[in-house]
């Protein structure tokens, strides 16, 4: 079912290109491992197992990692009311609603499709935002579900997970397997496996980060157009980003692994080259886009300007 969230062709193209490139990388990676390890059964079973686990259980893994729990309407009636209203406007299935008991103000969406999605907010976010601001944040998260980019990020990230696991396995095998009991050929294979896996991890990392930054801009745009209040979303962004900066960094590092799923990153990016590694565009970019949308909506609402 097509939702009423504004479709984004550029996002769709980027998701397709990212999955295609990662698919090619995945095939090359598996082929290299089969050649190096001489055991296609082991490689295929591990890869398929991790992909299946990420695809089917990503929502539960994310909720568990971020201490989220599913909440019913009786417990959080206002939160459910906002989600109900937005889903009705967007004409999309209502996701499971969850709350994480964390002071860090944030939100995220996860799930393999709109019928199996979860939207989670932290108690820190609920405590800090006004109703219109909360509506903007939830519309942003629901647009991720409607655009299906949550599922794409989940699937895309699995190659990096596989590569990272292989590097760790090879490293610990080298550390604890005993150098004296290995011949030079075995050591050379382990070194090549680690090298190939590290290269695959680096390439997939950069591809996913590039897609993640664009999808955040697409979600901001879709949420602003659905609610008609880009200024409320801009206010929420400013407030959340400012408050996160005051959260102790040690409390944020536990959440940093899930940055790609968050409304705003747990630890912000620095200017310069490090932006290549960021999961989100800068606050300035996001506010500038919302400012343009606000101006466009204002022009459209002005008599004589409608086109």
UniProtKB/TrEMBL annotation:
<keyword id="KW-0479">Metal-binding</keyword>
<comment type="similarity">
    <text>Belongs to the peptidase M48B family.</text>
</comment>
<keyword id="KW-0645">Protease</keyword>
<keyword id="KW-1003">Cell membrane</keyword>
<keyword id="KW-0472">Membrane</keyword>
<feature type="active site">
    <location>
        <position position="141"/>
    </location>
</feature>
<dbReference type="GO" id="GO:0004222">
    <property type="term" value="F:metalloendopeptidase activity"/>
</dbReference>
<dbReference type="InterPro" id="IPR001915">
    <property type="entry name" value="Peptidase_M48"/>
</dbReference>
<feature type="transmembrane region" description="Helical">
    <location>
        <begin position="12"/>
        <end position="34"/>
    </location>
</feature>
<dbReference type="InterPro" id="IPR022919">
    <property type="entry name" value="Pept_M48_protease_HtpX"/>
</dbReference>
<feature type="transmembrane region" description="Helical">
    <location>
        <begin position="40"/>
        <end position="57"/>
    </location>
</feature>
<feature type="binding site">
    <location>
        <position position="216"/>
    </location>
    <ligand>
        <name>Zn(2+)</name>
    </ligand>
</feature>
<feature type="transmembrane region" description="Helical">
    <location>
        <begin position="150"/>
        <end position="171"/>
    </location>
</feature>
<feature type="binding site">
    <location>
        <position position="140"/>
    </location>
    <ligand>
        <name>Zn(2+)</name>
    </ligand>
</feature>
<dbReference type="GO" id="GO:0005886">
    <property type="term" value="C:plasma membrane"/>
</dbReference>
<dbReference type="GO" id="GO:0006508">
    <property type="term" value="P:proteolysis"/>
</dbReference>
<dbReference type="Pfam" id="PF01435">
    <property type="entry name" value="Peptidase_M48"/>
</dbReference>
<feature type="binding site">
    <location>
        <position position="144"/>
    </location>
    <ligand>
        <name>Zn(2+)</name>
    </ligand>
</feature>
<feature type="transmembrane region" description="Helical">
    <location>
        <begin position="186"/>
        <end position="208"/>
    </location>
</feature>
<dbReference type="GO" id="GO:0008270">
    <property type="term" value="F:zinc ion binding"/>
</dbReference>
<keyword id="KW-0378">Hydrolase</keyword>
<keyword id="KW-0482">Metalloprotease</keyword>
<keyword id="KW-0812">Transmembrane</keyword>
<protein>
    <recommendedName>
        <fullName>Protease HtpX homolog</fullName>
        <ecNumber>3.4.24.-</ecNumber>
    </recommendedName>
</protein>
<dbReference type="InterPro" id="IPR050083">
    <property type="entry name" value="HtpX_protease"/>
</dbReference>
<feature type="domain" description="Peptidase M48">
    <location>
        <begin position="77"/>
        <end position="291"/>
    </location>
</feature>
<keyword id="KW-1133">Transmembrane helix</keyword>
<keyword id="KW-0862">Zinc</keyword>
């Amino acid at each position: 079912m097509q939702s009423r969230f504004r479709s984004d062709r550029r996002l769709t193209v980027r998701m397709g290109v990212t999955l295609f490139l990662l698919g090619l990388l995945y095939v090359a990676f598996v082929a290299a491992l089969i050649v190096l390890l001489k055991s296609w059964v082991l490689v295929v079973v591990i890869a398929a197992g991790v992909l299946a686990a990420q695809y089917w259980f990503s929502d539960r893994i994310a909720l568990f990692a971020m201490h989220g729990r599913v909440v019913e309407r009786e417990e959080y009636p206002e939160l459910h009311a906002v989600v109900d209203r937005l889903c009705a406007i967007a004409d999309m299935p209502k996701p499971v609603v969850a709350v994480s008991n964390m002071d860090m103000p944030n939100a995220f969406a996860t799930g393999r499709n709109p019928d199996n999605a979860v939207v989670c907010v932290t108690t820190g976010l609920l405590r800090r935002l006004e109703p219109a601001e909360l509506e903007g944040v939830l519309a942003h998260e629901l647009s991720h579900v409607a655009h299906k980019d949550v599922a794409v990020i989940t699937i895309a990230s699995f190659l990096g997970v596989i590569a990272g696991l292989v590097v760790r396995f090879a490293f610990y095998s080298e550390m604890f397997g005993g150098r004296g009991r290995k011949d030079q050929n075995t050591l050379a294979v382990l070194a090549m496996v680690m090298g190939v896996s590290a290269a695959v991890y680096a390439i997939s990392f950069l591809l996913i980060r590039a897609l993640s930054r664009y999808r955040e801009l697409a979600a901001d745009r879709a949420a602003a157009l659905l609610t008609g209040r880009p200024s409320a979303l801009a206010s929420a962004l400013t407030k959340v980003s400012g408050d996160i900066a005051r959260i102790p960094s040690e409390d944020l590092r536990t959440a940093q692994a899930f940055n790609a799923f968050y409304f705003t990153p747990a630890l912000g990016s620095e200017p310069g080259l490090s932006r290549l590694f960021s999961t989100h565009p800068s606050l300035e970019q996001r506010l500038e886009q919302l400012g343009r949308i606000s101006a466009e909506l204002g022009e459209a609402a002005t008599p004589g300007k409608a086109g």
